[in-house]
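User: Fold this; tokens only.

Assistant: Input:
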Amino acid sequence: MSDRFSPIQSTRLNLCSVRLHQLQELRELSIRTFTDAFAEANTQKDMEMYVAEAFSEEQLKAEIQDAQATFYLLKSGEDDTLGYCKLKYGPPSAVKTNGNALEICRLYVSQDYQRQGLGQWMLEQIRKKALKEKLDFVWLGVWSQNPGAIRLYERLGFQKIGSYTFILGEDPQTDLIMQLKLS
């Protein structure tokens, strides 16, 4: 687990790095938020295939133990988990870019807490973290069929710089690569 990440806090919100003993909480949250976000627009078969692989205990354990990545749970107080994100150091491989980068691999807010500015709050904390670490840019991949998320990222200064194919089950989909320059 990387020590490069430290807790990010607000007066009422807190991003706490996930530890291995929180694997089941992260797994349940990952499955629920991903399904809530994408089930209506995809087949049940593709969703089941993707969820079984991407959010298996083995896969999430490996991701938690990746020294270049950290999961954060978005908490309000000590008990309420509102969402999560996963951050990882490194630039996108699908496009040529120069500089030190931080990838937002996942960023989800639980359905009950959406439209309260929590995703934007997490993005701002990530931007501040990257600035503090003197990184050159933050980047992410977003499904091309998710206009609400794309608008949010654009409003916050992210720009489209490329795309790649994301396989959901057996369905090849296009994800846009968006970058926020910090310097």
